[in-house]
Structure formats: structure tokens, C-alpha cells
Write a structure and sequence with these properties.
This protein is an alpha+beta fold. It has a single domain, classed as START domain (Alpha-D-Glucose-1,6-Bisphosphate, Chain A, domain 4, 2-Layer Sandwich), CATH 3.30.530. An eight-stranded antiparallel beta sheet has the order 1-2-8-7-6-5-4-3. Helix 1 crosses helix 2. The radius of gyration is 15 Å and the shape is globular. The two termini are 16 Å apart. The mean pLDDT is 92.
Length: 155
Amino acid sequence: MTNSTTVERISDYEVIVTRVVNAPVRKVWRAWTQAELFRQWWVPKGAPITLKSCEMDVRVGGGYKLVFDYQGNEMPFFGRYTEVVLESRLVWTNDEAGDAGQISTVTFEDLGGSTRVVLSERFASKQALEDAMASGSMEGAKAQFEQLDEFVASP
């Protein structure tokens, strides 16, 4: 089964990325919450960036830190998990941008062998969302979700 990823701006502050992934929710959840799995699919293959390190403490109050290398420059992304509902929902902050950082929410809907994954990015301002859209990061999300589907579909 071939699925497509949709990216939809639903307000001045929020964009959602949706895809039905060809794997059970348990496997998709692990791909999002275990650092050794997450690092295998997160960075789009064609991107001029690498993920140097990935730390994840997936629990309410736990944190994450991703350090990327972009043309020899380190780019850290970090925050805290504010909601963790097993195999259903993750919510985290994006603290590297300070007060301008978005709140990310990903939900996992069990479709009996496949999983609907919906990522919501709620930005602090209209301008912050405009900047993210202009940077191409939302198009990168399409590639990430395609790679997630490929990753979890493999044995």
C-alpha cells in the first residue's frame, strides 16, 4: 500500500503533517521514542545535514537533545516532554528557540496493522510559522514521514 504525506496549514499558528504508516502502532511508537531507532529515519536522506547525537528520555518531564551537523556547524535542538501517553500521544517543547519555540504534538491512531500519524506544530507567532514554512522545514517533514514508513515497514 502506498500512502502520501500531507502538510496542511490549519491556522496562522499551526501546521499539521499526516500520514498513514504501514506498520502497527507499537512499532511506529518505538521508532519515535527510542533514540537508536529515531536516529535511523529522522534526517531526510537528501538533506545536507547529519544527526551527530540523539538523546531521548521519553517521560513527562524528561528531555531530548538532538545535535545536527550542518556544513561543519553544530545545531542543537532540545526540549521537554510534557505529555506521554503510551502508543497514543507525545507532546514536547522546542526550547532552543526560547519563547519563539513551537509545541510539537504527535498522535498515533491504531488502524489495525497500520498507523495514522499526525504531527502538529503550534508556533508562538504567525511570523515563526511563516519562517518555518519559508525555510522548507515542512517539506522536510514529508521526507521524514516517507522515511519513517520505509523504516518501520522493513523487518
